[in-house]
Every structure is written in structure tokens, then in C-alpha cells.
Design brief:
This protein is α+β, with helices and mostly antiparallel strands and about 240 residues long. It is about 50% helix and about 5% strand. The chain has ten helices and four strands, in the order βαβαββαααααααα. Helix 1 packs across helix 7 and helix 4 packs parallel to helix 7. The longest helix is centred in the middle third of the chain and has 21 residues. The chain binds glutathione. It comes from Anabas testudineus.
Length: about 240
């Protein structure tokens, strides 16, 4: 297996993407990149991963994605795609095995709308840990987050399904999951106390093979986030 160590400025560019494979530029602890890793795993897509040092990005990476963000996908014909939800939709469209987006335009639109709502929840997964780390009172933020979780919980109650797109995992579940995976790391699990369906969803998600294949242990996450919060992120933490 190729090294998972991150590539930094000055490093030699990796060779071309092998035919029949795709390449993901990633960072081991990035929740957005994890979305793409989940889809690659769930669909069994042949791929390689190049981890990027996000504090000191290689010039050849910035040439591929001028925004300098992971995830970035590259195909064997040199197509480059970035932005996690665009990468994931692209993979679902190109690789027909185990379709993750619904075929009905309305059901697909519903997933996109839910994702749009969820994008307004994501900042809480950053603000609360950062506030706790600097000793601030985050109780008001936690109240707001619980309210948002209440809405997601109601979605599951209304649908009467285990997952957000039905009784099996679909795209929307994988798009939301990486952020929930980190609740334990920041001692935020109690935010799920009043939302039993949502909590059950997190339990069901934890059993999924793609989730198991892409996750780190809580201790590894804690170790990485300690370096991140100290302003000295160690992207190779635990290797
Ligand atoms: N909207 C982007 C967000 C991706 C993102 O923020 N990735 C972070 C790592 S978790 C990144 O690449 N940061 C590098 C930087 O901001 O320079 C997506 O969904 O792909």
C-alpha cells in the first residue's frame, strides 16, 4: 500500500492516474474528503489516495485545484473535479454499481434540499469544539445545535425509515455522517440525548462497512485535533 504520509510543497508530483482507477487528493482527518472516501468505498471504486499537507501545499496540487481544497478527484484522462458533493455526485453518476442517489428527480431534489439545510448545521461542529478549547461558554451554541438535531430527528420520524433516504443508506446519509462521527471526539454525544431516532441513525451508520473502513479511532481523532487546535495540525498523526 502506498504511503499515507502527506505531500508538501517541494515534493515530487505523483505519476499519472492508472487506467481504470481514479485518484483522490485528500487529508486523513478532513470530513469533506471523508465524504468522497465513503462513496469510493461504498461503490467499490478502484482508487488511490494522495494526502496533502494543507499548511504547505505542493505546487502541483494547486495547479490541479486552484482553491487548494480537498477533496479533489482526478481521473485517468486528467479530468479534475472538486467540492465534496460534486465529487460524490460525479462518482455516483459515472459508476453505476450501487446507485446512491435516487433516480426520481423529486427524491433527488429532496436529498439536495436536506443537504442544503445540513450545510447550515456544519459550522456548529467547528464552533463548539473551538469554543470549548478556548474555555468559552458554549451552552447557547449547544442549545441551537440540539434544535437543529430536533429538525433532523423529525425528518426521520416523518419518513418512518432508518436512514434519510429510506431503509438503506443513500447519498445523503454519507454526506452528513463524517460530522456525526466526530461528536464523540469533542464530547458532544449528549447533544443527541433528546433525538432518539437520530441517535439510532448514528448507531446504524456505525455498522456500515464503508463507515468502518474510513473512520479513525476516537483516540487518533483526539490526538490529531489537539495538534489542529494548537495551530500546528499534524496531518500525519498516528502514522
Ligand atoms: N466546500 C468544500 C470544503 C472542503 C474543505 O474545507 N476542505 C478543507 C479540509 S477539511 C481544506 O481543504 N482546507 C484547506 C484550506 O482551506 O486551505 C467541500 O465540500 O469540498
Amino acid at each position: 500500500m502506498a504511503s499515507q504520509k502527506s505531500f508538501a510543497k517541494g515534493s515530487a508530483a505523483p505519476g499519472p492516474v492508472a487506467k481504470g482507477s481514479v485518484r483522490l487528493y485528500s487529508m486523513r482527518f478532513c470530513p469533506f474528503a471523508q465524504r468522497s472516501r465513503l462513496i469510493l468505498n461504498a461503490k467499490g471504486i478502484k482508487h488511490d489516495i494522495i494526502n496533502i499537507n494543507l499548511k504547505d501545499k505542493p505546487e502541483w496540487f494547486l495547479k490541479r485545484n486552484p482553491l487548494g481544497l480537498v477533496p479533489t478527484l482526478e481521473t485517468s484522462t486528467g479530468e479534475v473535479i472538486y467540492e465534496s458533493s460534486i465529487v460524490c455526485d460525479y462518482l455516483d453518476e459515472v459508476y453505476p454499481e450501487r446507485k446512491l442517489l435516487p433516480s426520481s428527480p423529486f427524491a433527488k431534489a429532496q436529498q439536495k434540499m436536506l443537504l442544503e439545510h445540513f450545510s447550515k448545521v456544519i459550522p456548529y461542529f467547528y464552533k463548539i469544539p473551538a469554543g470549548k478549547n478556548s474555555g468559552e461558554d458554549v451552552s447557547a451554541l449547544e442549545v441551537e445545535l440540539k434544535e437543529k438535531f430536533g429538525k433532523l430527528n423529525q425528518e426521520l420520524v416523518n419518513k418512518k425509515t432508518k436512514f434519510f433516504g429510506g431503509d438503506s443508506i443513500t447519498m445523503i446519509d454519507y454526506m452528513m455522517w463524517p460530522f456525526f462521527e466526530r461528536l464523540d471526539v469533542f464530547d458532544m454525544k449528549p447533544c443527541l440525548d433528546k433525538t432518539p431516532e437520530l441517535r439510532k441513525w448514528t448507531e446504524c451508520m456505525s455498522e456500515d462497512p464503508a463507515v468502518k473502513a474510513t473512520r479513525h479511532s476516537v483516540d487518533t481523532y483526539k490526538g490529531f485535533y489537539k495538534t489542529y487546535q494548537a495551530g500546528n495540525a499534524d496531518y500525519d498523526y498516528g502514522l
